[in-house]
Amino acid sequence: MAGGQGGVFSRRQALACGYSLQEIQARLTDGRWERIRYGQYAAAVDLGGMPPWERDVVRHRRLVHAAVNSMRLGSVAVSHQSALVLHGAPRWGLDLSEAQLTRLDDLRSGPTAGVRHHRGGLTPADLTEVSGLTVTTPARALTETACATSFEAAVVAADAICRSHPEVDLHLQRLLVVTEFWPGSTTARAALNFRNPLAESVGESRLRVVMHDHGLPPPTLQVPFEDVGGFIGRVDFFVSSMRTVIEFDGLTKYADGSAEILVQEKIREDRLRALGLEVVRVTWPELTQPARVVARIHQAFARAVRAA
């Protein structure tokens, strides 16, 4: 039963499966089960080996299933950032402290016990199913979330969702009209118009926003380069007018400490520079200091101009 409900089950369901109240309490006390929210439980899992963002996603998915499992069947749809998480969007910049549900029965809205209920005129075109739950479509969830978060977080989500769900583009214009007068719709429109599915990671999306916010020339994404030796590789960003390559370096590819990977990256960068290109590498921690990133890019631009 739990396997079909995201690992979650209610006290009533446990009783129906033959557990007594004493057995339920014993399992909660000794840690075999954990309480997800009032009357909703799951088998305890060890999340210690996961990165923090993956732990957040696992916990939020369980909270969503617990919230829906406590509601009358067919009365709600998972929506907003909760729906985005179920559709596989990265959780960066999203508030996952509450499960987000939209009422399908025109009853109450507002927050209650870790769940925020919304009212919205959802149509069949706005709904789909994920993991056995009624969920707003990727396009609807993206538009809803973009109205309620920052420009940067909305761009991160939009780049990722449009990359993994290309059909989203067919529906966004209709949804932007539907949400035209919603609070936050101006931010949503700007972020969705700025989306680019060629950004392949959260870091690349955030770096795009840094460059945009500081008035740098719009780069071309995923540009291939080759030399007499053949294909060099695709670069994250290329500002052709300044002959400058900008790469986001998430460092995950260096996690095993392989010297071979470091050597290959050095050779790749040397080949790009041999073509007369400037190369700027930006790491995840540097994104918290955008002024320094922009200064380094301007320095590269200046070197390119002097070399021209």
What would you say this structure looks like, in words?
This protein has 308 residues and is α+β, with helices and mostly antiparallel strands. The strands form 4 sheets. Strands 4-5-7-6 form a 4-stranded mixed sheet. The protein has a 4-stranded mixed sheet with strand order 10-11-12-13. Strands 1-3-2 form a 3-stranded antiparallel sheet, sandwiched between helices. It has 3 domains: 1-45, no CATH class; 47-197, no CATH class; 204-307, Endonuclease, Chain A. The chain contains 11 helices and 13 strands.
Sketch the major β-sheet. 4 strands, mixed
Whole-number average pLDDT?
Answer: 93
Strand composition percent: 15-25%
Outline type: elongated
Q: Write down how many β-strands occur, each being a DSSP E stretch of 2 or more residues.
A: 13
- Number of self-contained structural domains: 3
Distance between the termini: 68 Å
